[in-house]
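To whoever picks this up:

The nightly regression suite flagged OmpR/PhoB-type domain-containing protein as changed. Nothing in the input moved, so I suspect the structure step. Input below, exactly as stored in the fixture:
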Amino acid sequence: MRPEDQIYNFYRIELKQVADTIGKGKVAIFVGINAIGKTYLARQVLSERFRNEFLENQKTYFVSVDLKDKVGLSTNQVLSHWLSQTKKALGLKDELKEVNNFSFYSEMTELIKKLNPNEKMSFVVLDFQNTFGCDESFFQSLIYLSIYSYGKVSYIILSEPQILESKNLGVIRFLEKFENLRKFNFMRAFDAKTMKADIAVQGKLLGMDFKKYRTMLVKHSHGYHGISRTSCHLIKENPKLTDIRKLSKVFAENSSCQFWVKEILDSIPRESARILKEAVGNKTNFQKYPKNIYGKFLIDLTFLKKDGTFRYPLLTPFIKNYSPQDLTSPEVRRIKNSFFVGNDKMKLTKKEFMALDLLYKNKGKPVSSDSLGESIWKDNPDEFSLWAIAQIIRRLRKKLAFYFINPQRIKSVRNEGYVLN
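Regenerated output under the current build:
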């Protein structure tokens, strides 16, 4: 089997989901660390093979919004690129002119209106995290384009982990609208067959046969495209790196590798980075975190196995030496009649607010279910039940997680109620 065919087959699960998303006019968000394979997946989605196999009876215009390595873009630059790529996909001439949020939305709306009843448009956005410097209006435009296209528009978004804790209110609203409090699809590490195919692809790109290194690369890359790709480049420079000890030493001392791994670690949530440093080298330290949302992120992002084992030993020296500037967890603050996390105002229902308010006033002390019930349903005591209290607490925990706070900050205290730590 050709290497390209093996890579395509590996992504069949994701491609099936993409096809369903396009058919329904929805949004699919794939999250993965740098060099996990997001570019590979984007290529498969944009391929003729995917169209022929999964979208046989659908006329879909694919708009490739490739933002890879485009860091620090302004809102107008993103708008201009997005609109230009849309016109290119439709076979239209792109007139060079200044684009703002209003003109972007107006032009995009007109282009979508001109689609035939059986036609759809799908935006494939690679490295979506590079839009996080855009203003809120940009993300609101994306929301409106989806809503008012009535199923014609879909978004296939591929992002690095910054999306897990973006502070941009526009991004947060976009996720609230489409992802039901951040239900993401996490990128998978390659299996052994796909790893071999990846190494063959690297060989073609670098003009070198890596056959005699293949067993070592497959074994020690552990399915991570970034490690195999980087190792192939190092071996290209020094073909004497025939065993893992030599390769590990060069890997750890290479300044480009150091910069690359730091970028990866900077992209994940701060609390996840702290847990990772604690777990690397001693997996028993992870036993208290597997149900913690930040611990789950480390499993989902392929850093750790479920038992806390670190998947990528070649990266161990970098993680042990990693010193992020700030590993403190965000805090909930009450300002007047609202709760904030950082500068972000929490979106709470009236009952959620009343429950959190009582817990906040008694921080560190258990609050009984009866006290919560009397506070929330003082005018309608017949509506109070332990089940209703539990549902409010469940929703509050989900919202804490949305704002990057450990949901277990609200703990259940047996026979006493709940406590906010």
